[in-house]
Amino acid sequence: MRQRGKLEYGGHAAPQRTCVGCRVRTAKSELLRLVQVEDQVVPDLRGRLSGRGASLHPSVSCLELAERRRAFPRAFRVQGPLDVSRVRAHLEGEPRNVM
Ligand SMILES: [Zn+2]
């Protein structure tokens, strides 16, 4: 099933998204939003980047599952491989460069 981009929950239920790694549906607020910038996947830490998003549990194991499944090219509808090193660095606890 493909996710819808718009809210469809009226307001009573918390919006949920499916993790692109383990495919478990989880409250959107507990997932890390990822966006594609050129040939990279980057974490959208403040929810400000536009474009098609993908959701991932903030864990390296889900990132690795997503890579193994080639979930990112599918989620972002691109052909080639995508570089997830910035997502990995974020999940591994690199100091954040948030201004
Ligand atoms: Zn997951």
Describe the SSE topology.
Layout: E1 16-18, E2 25-27, E3 32-37, E4 40-43, E5 53-56, H1 60-68, H2 71-76, H3 85-91
The structure holds zinc ion (ZN).
- Going across the major beta sheet, what is the strand order? 4-3-5
Helices, by number, come to 3
Along the chain, the helix and strand elements come as: EEEEEHHH
Q: Note the overall shape.
A: globular
Radius of gyration over C-alpha positions, nearest whole angstrom: 13 Å
Largest sheet data: 3 strands, antiparallel
Structure summary, number of beta strands: 5
Query: How far is it from the N-terminal to the C-terminal residue, by CA?
Result: 36 Å
User: What structural class is derived from the secondary structure elements?
Assistant: alpha+beta
Question: Considering DSSP H and I runs of 4 or more, what fraction of the residues is helical?
Answer: 10-25%
Beta-strand content estimate: 15-25%
- Poorly predicted regions: none
Residue-averaged pLDDT, rounded?
86
- What bound compounds does this protein have? zinc ion
